[in-house]
Design brief:
Helix content: 10-25%
Distance between the termini: 50 Å
Structural class: alpha+beta
Radius of gyration: 20 Å
Order of helices and strands: HEEHEEHEEEHEEEHEEHHEE
Number of helices: 7
């Protein structure tokens, strides 16, 4: 695919202008590379210096346990508070131990607003007094500065995740469709190699276990939406793309430690009635960005996902209605908190320390 110089000049950096560091050196010199497919990044204003990404989970050994629905309803009420999240949604999955898990995912664009809400309301989620047999509660929280997360979308018409708080999207971006582009989209990588340091640690206080990861661990939420696909495109996606995606997610869930992945979940977004939608995403924690990059660029499971997805996009071209996105976060050591109340040992980041 060839583009004119005029087309090349229209490409933007994924990094917002106010976060660009003078002398930055992305892999491709600006103006010399045009990705074969357009992609976009969420644009936040200069007033957003950090965001909150909070994953409130409840797990039950018995899917019919009424504690599950009660906890979900309670959390939904809390999210409606005046200082509650700017955006919230729910996702569901069954983990490797057979526990049905629902996660309320909530985003704030001000850490102090979250702190206010958490001190008066949200902290009750991990109150030791609510512990019950067969039920676990957890909170996986990151508060990355604006330099420590990035987003990419295959189309600008549907926000996902943290992008719901952004006033808009960028134009077509240049840092996409080459191995290493994820790192080039992270503002922090302009001046920091983001090397990992320190090992995960575990603190136990009664029935509450708290995990702290090392510096520069990496979180990715990577999703797909087939809501607007036509019958043929949906059929081909479900037959040709989703099976390799599921296989890759299963590998990370069961054997991810061999490639530097602490934990992985493959979830379906559910609606207000708890019914599954046509949106799914994988969420995984990695030792560092390098481990995630190496798996993406070289491991057979991801190369199969990548190849099948590219064939799908090539088949439908500009007519595709498959929507792809991800958000990647590399929190500092002070920008993370992982608490598990009454959860089994293979829950989330407990897998890194138990």
């Amino acid at each position: 695919m060839t583009a004119s110089n005029t087309e090349k000049q229209r490409l933007e950096s994924s990094i917002a202008p106010h976060l660009v560091v003078e002398g930055r050196t992305p892999r491709h010199r600006p103006g010399t590379y045009t990705p074969p497919y357009p992609s976009f990044s969420a644009r936040f204003g200069e007033e957003v210096t950090a965001v909150v990404m909070a994953y409130f989970g409840v797990q039950v050994a018995d899917a019919d346990n009424p504690a599950l629905a009660a906890a979900v309803a309670e959390l939904g009420g809390w999210f409606g508070d005046e200082s509650g999240p700017a955006h919230a949604e729910r996702a569901r999955y069954v983990d490797g131990a057979g526990y049905t898990t629902v996660i309320g995912i909530a985003y704030w664009d001000r850490v102090d607003t979250f702190d206010e809400w958490y001190s008066t309301t949200g902290s009750a989620w991990l109150d030791p007094g609510r512990s019950a047999p067969g039920v676990g509660y957890f909170l996986e929280l990151v508060t990355p500065s604006a330099e420590r997360f990035e987003t990419v979308f295959s189309a600008p018409d549907k926000a996902e995740g943290v992008a719901h708080m952004a006033p808009g999207m960028s134009g077509e971006i240049e840092e996409h469709f080459y191995w290493g582009s994820m790192r080039d989209r992270l503002p922090a990588s302009q001046s920091d190699p983001l090397y990992p340091s320190g090992l995960p640690t575990l603190t136990i206080d009664g029935n509450l276990r708290t995990v702290t990861l090392g510096e520069n661990a990496c979180l990715i939420r990577s999703g797909q939406d087939i809501t607007d696909t036509g019958d043929r495109e949906r059929e081909l996606y479900l037959a040709d793309v989703e099976p390799s995606l599921v296989a890759g997610m299963e590998f990370l869930t069961t054997d991810g430690r061999s490639v530097g992945c602490y934990d992985n979940r493959f979830m379906v977004v559910v609606d207000d009635d708890g019914q599954p939608t046509s949106r799914t995403f994988g969420m995984s924690w990695w030792v560092d960005t390098a481990s995630l990059e190496e798996w993406a660029a070289s491991h057979p499971t991801h190369l199969k996902i990548y190849g099948d997805a590219m064939r799908h996009l090539s088949t439908f071209g500009p007519e595709t209605r498959l929507r792809l996105y991800h958000e990647v976060t590399v929190p500092a050591g002070t920008e993370q908190r992982f608490g598990y109340l009454g959860c089994h040992d293979r829950t989330g980041l407990l897998r890194a320390v138990v």
